Amino acid sequence: MCTAKRIVILYGSQTYTSQEIAERIWRTTKILGLKGPVQALDDYPISKLIHEQYALFVCATTGEGEEPDNMKAFWKFLLRKNLPSNSLVNLKFGVIGLGDSSYDKFNFVAKKLHKRLMQLGAQPLLDTALCDYQHDLGHDAVLMSWLEEFYAKLNTPLKIDPSIGVTKFVPRWKTTIIKNNITMISEYGLNKDMYFGSTNTDHFVNPIYLEIESNTRTTHESHFQDVRLLSFKTVNKEKINYCPGDVFNIRPRNSKDDIEDLFGIFETHNIDIKPHYMLNIEEYHEGKRQFSFSLKLQSMNYKL
Ligand SMILES: Cc1cc2nc3c(=O)[nH]c(=O)nc-3n(C[C@H](O)[C@H](O)[C@H](O)COP(=O)(O)O)c2cc1C
């Protein structure tokens, strides 16, 4: 049996669930002694896939059986007719599908990906994990036992002691607070507004600033569920184009008052965190910096 030393964990995610699961698995692989990154499929340089020996794909299905936005380029490439049928002979893989069996095209993307990888010569370590949002235990119902089998197939350098479980936390991001020297970080780029800062890992196209126009409770006061109808308006008369099946992601913004209160609390408790300090966030893979992002703490609340 081969021993895996490195695995790439790649996700296609529309509303972050697959990303969160992929990152969780990535942390476990670090504990198991494996190298390799966790990335959105479209951020991974696809030409490198032919050199990889192990890969795990975590893919959601969205729309009517469609692939998430952050794997569209990857998928288009993989479907090229001129790819030789032995392109991926070195690759052993697993596919985890995140779906919802109330849709006709249940886990369509994961199933298609699994099939296409095999057409290109890659060998599956296991059948596709068909996780179902409708299950009482959610995606974990299928995922947990599937992963146990998958880790066993990888025959990793280190093993998880079942009596201890996974307790060690391996952070993906390194954060540092910079108090004064702004020029020191300017070479990495300075994002003035964290809500609109675009990065190479951010696939949400054309973010738009919206304000809540109304927020009305639609259920009766005596009902145990508080269901709301929220209506939004654009501030600069911008027009938003959308069509059925589109996904609308909302990034809530902290209110200016809340942020001022927070800095007030830091001050009262002599905690040295000031609005003009900079937060620098970096991502490392195998000692090399992959990504860096800086913002002024006061930009947590409003556009500068
Ligand atoms: C707009 C929308 C469309 C969806 N379409 C499908 C589908 O066609 N087939 C399926 O199996 N699941 C479908 N799902 C369920 C998602 O795949 C599931 O909720 C998954 O956990 C989302 O993962 P993500 O957060 O990584 O995007 C859909 C979900 C949404 C919100």
From TrEMBL:
GO CC entries: cytosol; nucleus
Flavodoxin-like domain residues: 7-151
Main location class: cytoplasm
SUPFAM superfamilies, per database record: Flavoproteins, Riboflavin synthase domain-like
Protein's UniProt keywords contain Oxidoreductase: yes
Subcellular location: Cytoplasm
Alphabetized UniProt keyword annotations: Cytoplasm, FAD, Flavoprotein, FMN, NADP, Oxidoreductase
GO molecular function, one term: oxidoreductase activity, acting on NAD(P)H
PANTHER family assigned: NADPH-DEPENDENT DIFLAVIN OXIDOREDUCTASE 1, NITRIC OXIDE SYNTHASE-RELATED
Name the UniProt record assigns to this protein: Flavodoxin-like domain-containing protein
